[in-house]
Amino acid sequence: MDFLGMWLNCDGITIDPGKIKGLTDWPRTLKNVKEVQKVLRVLGYQRPFIPNFAHFARPLTSLLKKDTIFEWTPEHHASLDTLINIVTSSPVIVAPDQDRQFELEVDASQFAIGAILWQQDPANTKKLQACGYYSATLSPAEQNYKVFNKELLGIIRALWHWSHLLCGTVLPVLIWTDHRNLTYWIEP
């Protein structure tokens, strides 16, 4: 079943194969800002399937800044290649199941935050399946935050992003972060 360029099948939600074919044929060297805007719009529709989209797209979005001289560098080429390779690898996200526990993995870098919403595979409890990806570029003020505040901001934004799934769940949501001072336990 096709819905907004996504396919729903027994494995989960995938990108429409026609959209993937279009991206494989996309030129890998862009000549101006208009071409960068166009490719970012196309890839923006595939954002739910791209982990750390904001991180990988940063070199391309930096070309869109006002008063920036357009110069296509190997960094921009690598950024575009990475994004297209992720999309063309036929990523799958599973439909969330409210009766199973959610796990939220969050990370922050100097300029972006990212999160993955996971659930255990019912057939193999040692395997996690992605229900969705979230990423955002930090504002200049947020880039000045201490690392633990960036990690906490990532947690807050991810919880807000998936609040429609996480509010009211019977099982507690497990949150994974690589920053030790954000670790604590709340008794139910």
Which segments are poorly predicted (pLDDT under 50) over 5 or more consecutive residues? none
Q: Give the SSE order as H and E letters.
A: EEEHHHHEEEEHHHE
Strand order, biggest sheet? 1-2-3-4
What is the number of beta strands?
Answer: 8
Q: Average pLDDT value?
A: 86
Shape: flat
State the share of residues found in helices, binned by percent.
25-40%
Count of alpha and pi helical runs: 7
Rg (CA only):
18 Å
Per DSSP, what share of the residues sits in E-state strands of 2 or more residues?
15-25%
* Main sheet: strands, sense, barrel: 4 strands, antiparallel
- Going by helix content, strand content and strand pairing, the class is alpha+beta
| End-to-end separation | 41 Å
Report on this model:
This protein is 37% helix and 24% strand. The mean pLDDT is 86. A hairpin with a 2-residue loop joins strand 2 and strand 3. The radius of gyration is 18 Å and the shape is flat. The longest helix has 15 residues. The protein has 7 helices and 8 strands; from the N terminus they run βββααααββββαααβ. With 188 residues, the chain is an alpha+beta fold. The strands form 2 sheets. Strands 1-2-3-4 form a 4-stranded antiparallel sheet. A 4-stranded mixed sheet has the order 7-6-5-8.
